[in-house]
Amino acid sequence: MTSRLRARRRVLLVVTALAFIAVLAHLGLLDAGQLAFGARNVAIFTRDLFPPDPTVIGRVGIAILETIEIAFAGTLLGCVAALPLAIASSEVAAGPGSARVMRAVLAFIRTIPALLWAVVFVVAVGLGAAAGTLGVAVYSAGYLGKLYADAMDGVDPEVIEAVRATGASRVQVARLAIIPETMHALLTQLLFVFEYNVRASSILGFVGAGGIGFYLLGYLQSLQYDRLMTAVLATFVAVMLIDALSARLYRWLTDA
Amino acid sequence: MDAGTPTIEARGLGITFRGRDVLVDVDLQARAGEIVMIAGRSGGGKTTLLRAIKGILQPQRGHLSVLGAPPRVDGRADPRIGFIPQQLGLVRAETVLANTLTGACSRTGLLRSLLGRFAPEEYERAHAILDQLGIGEYAQLPVRMLSGGQRQRVAIARSLMQQPSILLADEFVSQLDLVTAREILEVTRAIARRGVTVLMTTHEVEMAREFADRIVMLQDGRVAVDAPATDVDVARIREVLR
What we know:
heterodimer; A: 256 residues; MetI-like fold; globular; B: 242 residues; 6-stranded mixed beta sheet; 8 helices
């Protein structure tokens, strides 16, 4: 390494450290009084979380089931929408012109988080799980659309050229060559997004879009921390189970 | 198509790519039922010539007529011209049958294509072709599980499903062992006997002499030799390939 490169790295390190300290101060994280006050509150909060209140497990269980339903239906609806969007966004499938425009559309969809899409659908279809499902579906379409388009652009161009040479249309090439060639990636990314959506769906209730989030926010705002702890633990168990199931499915798919 | 009918005619064909002349003033004629081997060193313009005939590339100079008209460059490709690229371009996750049926795309409607359900007569045709090529028993196997020679036959089957008048094959047997290569070339000879024009690129001169009706040697994008296979001067070919 040259001495000039070493000097540049040293300068970068010092500038980064100074910027970090300045940002912490601006955020109030160097204020000793505020930190001490916060620590006292955390201690009280932690004490009140235990023991968890088991009397709410029934309604919490139903809400978690609804959360998983929202994630499941939202992911699948998003996948159905993502496939044509991905084909239109793939350079090899639809050409560079379509790919540029459609990738911008997908980027816009992803810019807005699922929670905000849920707010939009609460306005459109009213409070409840339907709004949450549609919110998750739109966000998933944007996210999966991008992942799928990237996978499709990785298909061997010779395969596409050979199938196109038979006289196949673009849609036929997509259906008979591109989708089969990327099927493995499409399925594993679908599982990944489903896992992500189970977590994302757990806060949709904050905006009235169904699921466990409604209880999480309600118990938090009414200071029922023991009930909050029950809801959090139940959510944690559900997420772990979904992760384990997903991992098993992934292995099953990749071993085949 | 009746044997002897002209199918491909190129006069003064020229293609320049990134400032380099890949094909220069190429004249070529091929007839129905004829096997023409396009030989030459790597980078000599063989693949470019096939791609121009298929309509994948647009020649910048000269005249090119394929089956009586300039090749279709925009829109859907002409299914009467079968094209097998060097790496075959098979969908490896799909079965032998599914790959073969792809050759029927131009006769299949959008809904059937989307559902992956071809007409019953297409299934019959595909099975008959696979049986003819000796791979009928592998119809339901994924292509990735086949040997090189078997994959080659699947690529031929897909092209035959197109019911082609011309079959273009790029470096078709170069990656096969000698025995398998000869078997595949025998299959190709049988296809030509049905009146299909076969154009293949190769750098296997001995095999080209044995199986081709005519050999066209390309050197730096120009035709260096164009003669019946039996008349070709081996010393001259070796000189071109050196």
